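Lecture notes, unit on protein representations.

Consider one protein chain, 529 amino acids long.
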Amino acid sequence: MKVTNIPFKNTGFFSKTMINYLEESPKLQSFYGNFPNIEGFKDQLAQKRSFSTSHRKTLVSVLKNQYKNSKVSEATQQNIEALALENTFTITTGHQLNLFTGPLYFLYKIVSTINLCEDLQAQFPEENFVPVYWMASEDHDFEEINFFNFDGKKVQWNSHQTGGVGRFSTEGLDHVLEVFSEHLGTSKNAQYLTQLFKEAYVEHANLTEATRYIANELFGTYGLVIVDGDDRELKKEFIPYVTKEITEQFSFTKVSETIKLLEADYKIQVNPREINLFYLTDSLRERIIFENGVYKVNSTDISWSLEELLSEVSDFPERFSPNVILRPLYQEVILPNLSYIGGGGELAYWLELKSMFEAAEVPFPILLLRNSVQVISEKQAKKLTNLGLSTETVFTKQNTLIQQKVLENSETNVDFTKQKQFLLDQFASLRKLAEKTDVSFLGAVNAQERKQQKGLENLEKRWLRAEKRRQKDLVERITVLQNEILPNQSLEERQRNFSEYYLEYGTDFIKVLKENLRPLQLEFTILIL
């Protein structure tokens, strides 16, 4: 095995927002609090020490109840109990309830969270650090989570259920298991994956319970604590903020102000609604809107006056579900949390939220970009070496990579740079001449220049196409290999499911991740296995 770490920006797959954040660009510094380094965590600890004792008691009680039907590891049990102590803090990641964990990066999120807790424990031995996985059980975008990819094939669950996906019945997933198991084979690792899927989805009643089971099976031994925010007791803690949202629409105001500042340099990830809450029941999750002086649930006949709505919040807090804007605040209200670990897209929208947190008087957590990993087999690594490619160059855009290698391997070194420069010089002289004689002649000169440049570019393209045909074998080998490593010309962690690597490496795969992912290095990891 060989491990290489490279800057995130060298992959070409991370946004300007994330690269600037990692580089601590002055343009972004006002949009977050502490940076993810040891000094930053020292400051964050000081901010979070005042976390409510009553909130801790509620959290521990709720977690014990949520785990009552689960096999709890000793490490997880100790961590749940420790959350009652004033010197215990959480590191949190969140993820949708994707079928069989969905994309591979689910594992990287969890391992990043566990490893950061261990790193902080070494730095601050007087404190306790608990890794938390926040299940997005209230999400209603079923089409985003009802499948995973295995060996280039889509394994999908079709259901007509509506509402928060965590409450979805797992009925019908036995048929998905039949399809999936046919692809797995009969090896020991295949049998484990089949059993894991069966015990999770066939033997648990809903998607929340099934997802908790899988995460607990894979990571319980490391003390991972799994939180389901779809909980009446936890929602009670959030009532003051729901009330503030309804009466002041503070999140819309604050996030909109931030967006005006951010959008000058960066792409905006999410936009707020006037009210950033959903109304949630067993079969419904719809936006709450304010229209013509009345509060309504979108696409339903449910409506309230302000007084009636505030009464509903007080009596049934579990029915009020924060959307993407308010969910981070809910998380930080109920957890003694120091840091949120997420992907680039997630952290981009968190950067919109700091002023909202300040208005709510809740400490803004440290934002940490999760570890990203590219797995390359030894066989693939040998092929790269034979092609004269480094592991890092595999991230180059395919057309550019092929062009570079074709030019490098060409028997005739054809370079049109001199000819292009010659044209530029000649037409620069002609422009000066035109300006001295007849300005109307300038348009004709510019038009002719564009024509000549285009002609030269076409000649260059024709030569390159001919050279690619001559080096057809090289082009094909590069194309096939890169497509293997980067399916759909994307990072494999966004395409593949963990089961592909578990099938090959078994428990060793998670052990390798655990041993080699260092969250605070802020680098992209390449693993040759």
